[in-house]
Design goal:
Strand content: 25-35%
Number of helices: 10
Largest sheet: 7 strands, mixed
Shape: globular
Distance between the termini: 22 Å
Oligomer: single chain
CATH class of the largest domain: Alpha Beta
Order of helices and strands: EEEHEEEHEEEEEHEHEHEHEHEHEHEHE
Number of strands: 19
Number of domains: 2
CATH topology of the largest domain: Quinone Oxidoreductase, Chain A, domain 1
Helix content: 25-40%
Structural class: alpha/beta
Radius of gyration: 20 Å
Length: about 350
């Protein structure tokens, strides 16, 4: 047991408070990692605001990179000093979904209130099995992937969630094939990576849809062939005019239920809506099963891009090294740990691609 600093949430909707808390030693199959950089994801903000009803007190943060400082028994393939990405994908490796190659939807639950965090004997919720808004974390070995030691940690941190979620949603979940047409709704951090994933997959046309003109201009830099303002009265009509038909895949990267309501209107025959952004649990949408079934359309979920951590993170790093994937350009701002609330507030404006906390 050691004392570390962490940004703790004790009341939903209130600023995080940097406190000294206790971190337990790694157990069987776990390892301790010193965090060098952690990015602000909109999921962290949703948790802070009370979305998904997280327990309190809590430490959020799940998009991180750092160095291994301690190994629990049974950890294989990693050594103290290794540079790693830290993800929220905690997989047992034994359930049906893990066995079928879908560890992002592992069926074995994890209780973050029984994790490694506490203060004076009081448990602290390790949100998303990570709790990376802290100097150190203890996580399962399934959540970690070794990365090159010379890779900048601020860039590497983005891979742990936003990049794998967006790229994976296009290349893996949507299963985009060469020559297909794709619409990406939302040109934030995940949306830009979904665009990049569609490029890698060989899409013919990639149309970005967003409310902000400046974000649409950035979308072009990341590979969008066309852009449409969501502020138009019927943006789906503008998209169909560009494509000559409806899209083969519509990737919704914003957590807004109303957008999911409209998403099928962008589809062509046989197309599907890929659900990437996560609205709060009390939000619902309606659609016509008759209309969608009659056109061979559907909805499908994409959890963390359906990636396999130790297979797909090295693939993404290789694309980056080849110059085929933009990562440095995703960073909007860099903040110190004591500026974490400023980074969160800036992210809430919607203008940031990704803000990153540099721990030292």
């Amino acid at each position: 047991m050691q004392t570390i600093k962490a940004a703790v949430c004790r009341e939903h909707g209130k600023p995080l408070v940097i406190e000294e808390i206790q971190l337990a030693d790694p157990k069987m199959g776990e390892l301790e990692i010193e965090i060098d950089a952690v990015a602000i994801c909109h999921s962290d903000i949703s948790f802070q605001q009370g979305g998904f009803n997280p327990a309190l007190p809590a430490v959020f943060g799940h998009e991180a990179a750092g160095r291994v400082t301690k190994l629990g028994e049974g950890v294989k393939g990693l050594e103290v000093g290794d540079s790693v990405c830290v993800t929220l994908i905690r997989a047992c490796g034994q359930c049906n979904t893990c066995g079928s190659g879908r560890p992002t939807i592992c069926e074995t639950p994890y209780d973050g209130m029984k994790g490694p965090l506490s203060k004076d004997g009081e448990p602290i919720f390790q949100a998303m099995a990570s709790g990376a808004f802290a100097e150190k974390v203890v996580v399962d070995q399934s959540q970690v992937c070794k990365i090159p030691s010379d890779m900048p940690k601020d860039v590497a941190s983005l891979i742990s969630c936003g990049v794998i979620t967006g790229v994976g949603a296009a290349a893996l979940s949507a299963d985009i094939r060469v020559g297909q047409d794709v619409v990406v709704i939302g040109a934030g951090g995940v949306g830009l990576n979904a665009i990049q994933g569609a490029v890698v997959a060989g899409a013919r046309r990639i149309v970005a849809v967003d409310m902000l003109e400046e974000k649409l201009e950035v979308a072009k830099e990341f590979g969008a062939t066309d852009v449409v303002s969501a502020a138009e009265q019927k943006p789906w009509s503008a998209v169909k005019k560009i494509l000559g038909r409806g899209a083969d895949a519509v990737l919704v990267t914003v957590g807004v239920a109303e957008v999911y309501e409209q998403a099928p209107r962008y589809l062509g025959m046989g197309g599907k809506v890929v659900m990437v952004g996560l609205p709060h649990g009390d939000k619902t949408v309606t659609f016509s099963p008759l209309a969608m079934a009659g056109q061979g359309q559907g909805y499908s979920g994409s959890m963390m891009g359906d990636v396999v951590v130790k297979r797909d993170i090295p693939w993404i790093i290789d694309l980056y090294k080849q110059g085929r994937l933009k990562l440095d350009e995703l960073i909007s701002g860099r903040y110190s740990f004591d500026q974490i609330n400023d980074a969160i507030e800036n992210t809430k404006t919607g203008a940031a691609r990704r803000n990153v906390i540099i721990m030292k």
